[in-house]
Amino acid sequence: MSRHTVSARVHGPLSRFAWFVLYLDILLIPLALAWGAIGPVESSVGGAVELSAGLVAFSALVVAVVLPARLPMLISAFGIETILTVHRFIALVAVVLVFVHLVAVLIFDPRHLSILAVWHTTRAARAAVTSTVALVLIVVLAMRRARLQPRYEGWRLVHNGLVAVVLATAWLHVWWLRHLVSHTLLAVWFVLSGVLVAGLAARRWIWLPIRARRYAYVVVSVRPVPGDGVTLVIQADRHPGLPFVAGQFVWLKIGSTPFVFEEHPFSIASTAEHPDRMEFTIKALGDFTELLVGLRPGRRVYLDGPYGGFTMSGLDSVPGFVLIAAGVGITPLLSMLRTMADREDRRPVRLIVSARRPQDLMLLPEVEEVRARLNLKVVEVVSEPGPGWTGETGRINHGVLSRCLPRRPHRLHYFLCGPQPMVTSVSHDLAALGVPLRRIHTERFGAV
């Protein structure tokens, strides 16, 4: 397969700026249309606050839903961790604006608190109350999630259900008021926003599972690996495989149908040159890992993807790379190494891996398998070395990097994958060593 068969052409600042402008338009265009149609003369100060806060809140809800809708170009441009961070921020903005809108309505609407009496109010008001209550539940569940630590699939099911209620009832609230949609341009805008959200929902919950069924894989083997991990190897079931770029990830579904709700994101560890055979190494944790261990050869599994911009795509002229991982964060980096080896790419690479103990270092035998075909130097760092250890000790920090990096480190590109504290700390250390931020590529655990 050609190295350019799959290309993340949407990385770059220009693409990110275009996405930013698009989302800003979604946020502000309905407000501009409303003021153009209604005009400030027709609204009091209270009415202006009520209208502006409500419209921008609705637009923010639409943006918050579109962001995590698994659009490959968007994920490639920003990375899943940035998208989810912005998603949470925009959702918080929407909550604040809904609160401002509600307070303005209660103060300036002549019905005041009686508007909340859902048993004898208008259907538009009932929709608004339903949407607000569902939004409050989303906020409460999100705030208590870290403390209660519910099962992820159950939490996600409730979260997505509440989001659907919030958006549907907010849309109906605006439509049933008729005040705004009596103007043609605003009516067109709200119809298009409803079609957009419905289309994305249909794509996410209907089309993507159908696609996953068409590109099903079967289990070849499941084996334990050092570092308390499990490696899953799968083979394309009567198709050439899903093309991907080394460093990308997929959502993995195990069940009799791709429409099952439970799914988990995993980085691909195998070479991008042979997408018909994929490999994943997964840290042993929780019920899903036990399910993986119980898989038997021939069992069908389903993939949604590939996604992600944590790749070397577009870096053909870069003189070399430094790959830095903690624990199972080595998996996308192993895919990069295997792909470089298959493409006979002899540019210098330094792999720096860390773990608590030597026996916790993951996938080093797999790295050794491709080492002879690469210009590769491996540095192992452990925090509890034990007797006889001769490698680096402690954590990957400024001192370790100063000793391990080549001269003129600012010319290389860096790929960091691991827990968020490690990625953040090492990014700061690299910046202190003179590495430009645009050359530091990161992927953090726990983003999804």
TrEMBL record:
Molecular function terms from GO: oxidoreductase activity
Keyword set includes Lipid biosynthesis: no
Gene3D superfamilies named among the record's database cross-references: Nucleotide-binding domain of ferredoxin-NADP reductase (FNR) module, Translation factors
Highest rank taxon of the organism: Bacteria
Keywords tagged on the record: Membrane, Transmembrane, Transmembrane helix
Cofactor(s) in the UniProt record: FAD
Cross-referenced SUPFAM superfamilies: Ferredoxin reductase-like, C-terminal NADP-linked domain, Riboflavin synthase domain-like
Lipid bilayer topology: Multi-pass membrane protein
An annotated GO cellular component: membrane
Primary location class: membrane
Matching PROSITE patterns: FAD_FR
Record-annotated membrane-spanning stretches: 20-39, 51-69, 89-108, 124-143, 155-174, 180-202, 214-234, 318-337
Residue ranges constituting the FAD-binding FR-type domain according to the UniProt record: 212-313
Location within or outside the cell: Membrane
UniProt protein name: Ferric reductase
Organism the protein comes from: Kribbella pratensis
